[in-house]
């Protein structure tokens, strides 16, 4: 797998995003440099959503400026539940997203709320079929937060894509066979949270008082990094690359240099079976208050 399977996540470009983010949303010029660097590094996939602040409109301006709008593959997302919404209003909203992005069609459109799976056989399925029929997206899928919902997506022929969190702490999707199942069913997997919104790259002393319960997990990570002479990013990327060899991997950046560094590490990452074994014995976390960022503010 080469860097062509890397996907630039763009939430950071539209709003302040991530526990490690100290600078907020970068200025347009810096965002331009980030996208240009990604493009120069052979990254062709970009992940966004209407709910990511100004991300879509910023991407659209940059795609146009770089003259690459017809060459990129963009994934965006629909927020909320489609059970009782008007189909025409949803299609109108997607059309607005396409205009902001300066695109004629999305590579993928995902449901941001897996709760839609509970109503799939009613309004949701009809709307998603209309999206494809109107050539607004080549593929549709769901962004999920649990193994159970990931399996529900894989079991339905309507979906081509499932987006899941996966990292050195949140390993269950591999251990429960999601990647094997996706390959068997010819589904495309997109992985997010490989750095767990920046937590996996933080120093222990950077944690605020409300995150002190995270320290023991970062200590375990640091022990492995020291033992195998790996940086935090090398450990995080190396594990995901090894265990999710057929998946697309989303990462974020606040500086062009971070894009270059991530691509460089990804190209060279080749951690051995001994390191994998230690990661899977010592680092898995089942506590949702740690591995699910939506719980961090509770």
In words, what does this structure look like?
There is one protein chain. With 298 residues, the chain is an alpha/beta fold. It is 44% helix and 14% strand. It contains 13 helices and eight strands. The chain has an eight-stranded parallel beta barrel, surrounded by four helices. It starts with 5 loop residues before the first strand and ends in a 7-residue tail after the last helix. 39% of the residues are buried.
| Main sheet summary | 8 strands, parallel, barrel
- Strand order, sheet with most strands: 1-2-3-4-5-6-7-8
Summed over residues and divided by their number, the pLDDT gives a mean of 93
State the secondary-structure class: alpha/beta
In terms of topology, how is this protein built?
Blueprint: E1 6-9, H1 11-14, H2 28-40, E2 45-47, H3 55-66, E3 73-78, H4 87-101, E4 106-111, H5 120-133, E5 137-143, H6 147-154, E6 161-165, H7 172-175, H8 178-184, E7 188-192, H9 215-228, H10 232-243, E8 248-252, H11 256-268, H12 273-282, H13 288-291
Parallel strand pairs: 1-2, 1-8, 2-3, 3-4, 4-5, 5-6, 6-7, 7-8
